């Protein structure tokens, strides 16, 4: 675990929050706990490193509504929902909406710790993807408009000859732009170039 990873616990029951904090901290995890979803959202960074453990039933904004709000804000964080007796259908809905797992109360400590470990591993992958996208976006910003056009054509799988015809330039000019693209994007191969472009969002929209 890195120092930046946090297990966020959101539950309106202070006893549950204290119990979870003690359990998670005993396993070496950094913990922040909140009594309401609103309080949690007001303190949440844009790209949180960690995971969320949330009760499915809470006043004002419940676990499902919080999960939907995170999706609306495009905040990628693995979610584990906790449910009381009779709330399993709600927990299943949460999982269908993207939650990693649901834990029934009274919860099993080892089960929660295992879920948190899995969630944190998933969070690291998400953070790595976000970092790659930011880096690729910085490289994209260095491209000229014509180089960006050539890149979009390459991502679409088109050959130099087809690109030249589409853009009204010579195949040789396409080769020159392609060489500049490889240098600016710090790509060693065409597959590297395409991967970086996709990470930056180039070519992710359907062409008309």
Commentary on this structure:
It is a single chain. The protein has helices at residues 14-26, 37-43, 63-72, 88-96, 109-140, 145-155, 160-167, 171-184, 190-199; strands at residues 6-10, 30-34, 50-55, 79-83, 101-104. With 208 residues, it is of the alpha/beta class. A 5-stranded parallel β-sheet has the order 2-1-3-4-5, sandwiched between helices. Strand 4, helix 4 and strand 5 (101-104) form a beta-alpha-beta unit.
Structural class: alpha/beta
Beta-sheet strand percentage?
5-15%
Low-confidence runs of at least 5 consecutive residues: none
Please tell me how large the radius of gyration is: 23 Å
Helix content: 40-55%
In short:
The protein is an alpha/beta fold. It has helices at 14-26, 37-43, 63-72, 88-96, 109-140, 145-155, 160-167, 171-184, 190-199; strands at 6-10, 30-34, 50-55, 79-83, 101-104.
């Amino acid at each position: 675990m890195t120092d930046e990873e946090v297990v966020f616990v959101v539950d309106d029951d202070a006893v549950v929050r204290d119990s979870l904090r003690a359990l998670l901290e005993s396993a070496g995890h950094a913990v922040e706990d909140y009594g309401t979803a609103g309080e949690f959202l007001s303190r949440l960074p844009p790209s949180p490193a960690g995971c969320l453990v949330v009760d499915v039933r809470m006043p004002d904004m419940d676990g499902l509504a919080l999960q939907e709000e995170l999706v609306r804000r495009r905040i990628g964080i693995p979610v584990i929902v906790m449910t009381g007796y009779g709330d399993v259908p709600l927990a299943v809905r949460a999982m269908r909406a993207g939650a990693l797992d649901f834990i029934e109360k009274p919860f099993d400590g080892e089960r929660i710790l295992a879920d948190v470990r899995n969630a944190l591993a998933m969070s690291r992958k998400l953070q790595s993807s976000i970092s790659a996208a930011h880096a690729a976006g910085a490289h994209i910003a260095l491209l000229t408009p014509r180089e960006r056009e050539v890149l979009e054509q390459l991502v679409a799988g088109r050959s130099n000859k087809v690109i030249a015809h589409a853009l009204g330039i010579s195949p040789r000019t396409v080769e020159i732009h392609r060489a500049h693209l490889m240098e600016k994007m710090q790509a060693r191969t065409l597959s590297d170039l395409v991967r970086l472009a996709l990470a930056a969002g180039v070519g992710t929209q359907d062409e008309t």
